[in-house]
Structures are given as C-alpha cells and as structure tokens.
Amino acid sequence: MGLALRQIKTYAKLVAMVAAAVAVLLVVLMNRNHRVDVWLFHSFPQTNVLWVMLVSGISAVVIAWTLARVRRVIRDVREIRKAKAVEAQMAEQRRLAAELKEQEDRIDTKIQSSIGQADSSEET
What we know:
Elements: H1 2-31, E1 35-39, E2 43-48, H2 49-123
Antiparallel strand pairs: 1-2
C-alpha cells in the first residue's frame, strides 16, 4: 500500500510539473511578438512583453526575499529586547536575594547574640 501511494504522489508531481512547463511554454509562445510601452522612471517604447514579465517576476522575488530578511531582523531585535528584559529581571532577583540573605544573616546574628545574653543572665 505504501509503495502504491508513493507512486501516485510521484506521478501527480510529474503531471503538475509538466502542466507548469506547458503553461510557461504557452505564455512564451503566445506573447513572443507582442510589444508594449513601459514607463519605469523612464519611457521604454515598444518593449517585448516577455522582458516585462521577466523583470516583474524577478522584481517580485527580490522584494519578497528582502521583506523576509527585514521581518527576520525585526524578530531578532524583539527577541534581543526580551532577552535583555529577562536578564535585567534575573539580575534584580539576584540582587534582592542577596539583600534578603544579608538581612537574614543579621537577624540570625542578633538572635544568637540575644540568646547568648539571655543564657549568661540566667547563669548569674
């Protein structure tokens, strides 16, 4: 059963690739003689439609890639800010823990000294 399913998936992918290739071939063949006036910060009269399609496709890929990179950098900046906030919070907790430890030590010392004074006053 597994082999048959894999074979069906493989042939389906092959059919999809052939259909895509036929579609691209049809677009190229049907538009090879068409010309269009293009303005992109400058006038390009009677430019072949295939060149316009190629440039716009490449531009779309470059823009998508650039936006993905920008998005990743923004996410990294957010993660760094969160990490800094967590680190600052941990440092504050460590500082408070050290203060509490010091305060406990002082209280223990006072209790021990008061116990020692109470023992010495009972003996006399």
